Amino acid sequence: MTDPIVVVNGRVVTADDEFDADLRIVDGVITEMSPRGGLSGGGDVIDADGCYLLPGGIDTHTHFENPTLMFTTASIDDFHSGTVAAAHGGTTTIIDFVKTEPDSTITECFERRREIAASKCVVDFALHPVVPIAAAETGALAELADLAQRHGAMTWKFFMAYPGTLMVDDRTLIEGMRLAKQVGAMPILHAENGHIVHDATTRLIEAGLTAEHHHHDAHPHVAEAEAVYRAISIGEYVDSPVFIVHVSSARAAEEIARAKRQGKAVYGETCPQYLLSALEDYEGIGFPAAAYVCSPPIRERANQEALWSALAAGHLDTIATDHAPFSMCEEACFPPQKSNGKGYFPHIPNGVPGVEERLMVMWESGVTTGRLTRQQFVDLTATRPAKLFGLHPQKGSLHVGADADVVVWDPRAPRTLSSSDLLSRAGYTIYEGTKVSASPRFVLSRGEVLVSPALSSSVAGRGRYLHRQRAGVLA
Ligand SMILES: [Zn+2]
After folding, report:
1. Cα of 28 to ligand 1 centre, how many Å?
2. What would you measure as the largest C-alpha separation in the chain, in angstroms?
3. How does pLDDT run across 424-447, given as a tens digit for each residue?
4. How far is the CA of 60 from the centre of ligand 1 (A)?
5. Which of 137, 219, 261, 394 counts the most CB atoms within 10 A of its CB?
6. CA distance 364 to 374
7. How would you class 110 by CB atoms within 10 Å of its CB: exposed for 0-12, middle for 13-18, buried for 19 or more?
8. Mean pLDDT over residues 113-129, rounded?
9. In this structure, what are the phi and psi dihedrals at residue 43, rounded to the nearest 5 degrees?
10. Is 214 helix (H, G, I), strand (E, B) or coil?
């Protein structure tokens, strides 16, 4: 139990409105919202004068202590450092992934990882099981249905890329997505044609084009567009909603927009790195380009505008980070980090950090520029993620009865982003030197102040696991 809190003088922003209101928080829940000046007494007071009150950010796509490169390495933030970074950026819920490790079942891995996360997370969390390769043949689909029922694991990640390790074939897509529909789960897809990426990679290697930035060339737009179209088609065939993660290509965004126009339950996420960084930032710069290597890749600058338009039009639904941090340290590290692939892009672990930066860089590039309204910002970073991923109405908006995950967002609190201040262990940010005008002044998770001008709390294990009833419904 935390002490009651009254948040006064703030301006509440929701996905479709904003208004001046004071909040009362009792036992971690918003119990009262009242016109400004309407609440007094009965607890600690947080003065939000001049600030917006935003629902805590929800990042539905993080990779903390994530095994990769055939389980030879792992991302460098664990569930503790990663969620501390999240909280400091105003994100109070994360959803991470569970892969099947060698000689284990997805159930064993899920239960083990849930325990590890529960012991370390500072903010609330959920987990997406990754559909095991050949799950339709091995019986692993039945395990997923069981995880949905027993653990509320209502979002299943299908990889259409990485043949041999993660890529599922169309049979598993068909049977897995049909089963997801039956149990109220939502398929979420890494949509790239893995065979095209493999072929393109092989041809680049044969041509001696292995410099870090050639990672981009191994992931052509058509590989993403084809997989998005195939995922949408299979979703149509089995009558399942479809959620495409990390949409990077304008062509892929257009496939989603077309499906939406046809009335299909098709949804898409993009990430700040695809909106704010471009191939032109890292082409031909040698090893520093490894900092930008992620999949799908950060594409040409000319590709960005279509993603912004898709966000503004509602054709893309959420902004998550795909936070997958690997150090740029150049000594040989164990486990290996970015320098593992120095001069040879196929050996660079994929991923960029961003869990702390997300709200600040998206507010700056989206809201202060007028590309997105404050309502759209809240919708894309909290409300629609909560709805689609089965966390609403407990999370994702400020209303009576919701968890008191509240960000007191100061629109006049400028800072210059630098890895020396950010808390990810990645030790770098692709937004180094970026000036932002707004940042969180207070961050509350279930009524507990995690971040304030005077305080920075990082109690491992206070975050709670979120058992979800269903996903894939925007209502
Ligand atoms: Zn990812």
Report:
1. 31
2. 72
3. 999 999 999 999 999 999 999 999
4. 10
5. 219
6. 11
7. buried
8. 98
9. 145, 180
10. helix
pLDDT bucket at 274, cuts 50 / 70 / 90 = very high
Question: Could you give phi then psi for residue 315, rounded to 5 degrees?
Answer: -80, -25
Q: Is the dihedral of CA 169, 172, 178, 182 positive or negative?
A: negative
Q: How far is the CA of 295 from the centre of ligand 1 (A)?
A: 8
Mean pLDDT (the chain) is 96
Q: Looking up tokens 């179209």, which residue turns up? A: 229
CA of 301 to the centre of ligand 1 (A): 22
Per-residue pLDDT at 1: 58
Q: 59: CA distance to ligand 1 center in Å? A: 11
Asked if residue 166 lies in contact with residue 133, where contact means CB atoms within 8 angstroms, the answer is yes
Question: What is the 402 CA–ligand 1 centroid distance (Å)?
Answer: 28
Taking the centre of ligand 1 as the mean of its atom positions, its distance from the CA of residue 368, in whole angstroms, is 28
* Radius of gyration (C-alpha) of the chain in whole angstroms: 21
**Structure tokens given for 127:** 């987990």
Q: What is the Cα–Cα distance from 87 to 75, expressed in whole angstroms?
A: 19
| Residues 215-255: tens digit of each pLDDT | 999 999 999 999 999 999 999 999 999 999 999 999 999 99
> How many A from CA of 74 to the centre of ligand 1?
13
Ligand 1 mean position, distance from CA 244 (Å)? 11
